[in-house]
Amino acid sequence: MKASINLFVLCGIFFMIMAVIYGFVTHFDEMVGFPALLLVGVMSIMIGVYLWLTDRRVGRQPQDTETAEISDADADYGFFSPWSWWPIVCAAAGAVSFYGIAMGWWIFPFGAVLGIIALVGISYEHDRGGFAH
Q1: Domain boundaries, the chain
Q2: Integer Cα distance of 28 and 22 in angstroms
Q3: Positive or negative, the Cα torsion across 78, 128, 87, 106?
Q4: Of 30, 40, 91, 119, which residue is 20 to 30 A from 15 by alpha carbon distance?
Q5: Could you tell me the CA-to-CA distances from 95 to 112, 113, 121, 122 in Å, in that order?
Q6: Residue 18 to residue 21: CA distance in whole angstroms
Q7: Are 123 and 91 in contact (CB under 8 A)?
């Protein structure tokens, strides 16, 4: 968790510095860029502070130890299907759907139908075929 804390805080500081530089370059006339960069920095620091407070409350985690093994973690993370093509179909459905929203609403239903098919496929991939249980 220490690496995540450092990453979010450093990214937040970077975005806030870039926001100020961007503001001076645009003479603070641009109404979106400066506030957006500033808010990204503030939100990144908020996540870093939340992780820091959680780290203080929970204590040292296995991911903070250089010699930790996967089995040192407490929770069961489930299982991973490395042979599955359904995540790629889900990503394609999301891409087509968002492309449809941006470019033309007539494209969106194709992405939505593909998304439903992908969701059903990824949900039931372990209930049929060679990997059924």
Answers
A1: 2-67, 86-124
A2: 8
A3: negative
A4: 91
A5: 10, 13, 17, 17
A6: 5
A7: no
* CA–CA separation, 6 and 48 (whole Å): 7
Q: Using alpha carbons only, give the angle 39, 41, 47 rounded to the nearest 5 degrees.
A: 100
CA–CA distance, 115 with 1 (Å, rounded to integer): 34
Question: Within a 13 Å sphere around the CA of 64, how many CA atoms are in the beta-carbon half?
Answer: 11
Q: ∠29-30-36 over CA atoms, to 5°?
A: 135
Structure token pair of residue 43: 């939100």
pTM: 0.58
Terminal Cα distance for the chain, rounded: 35
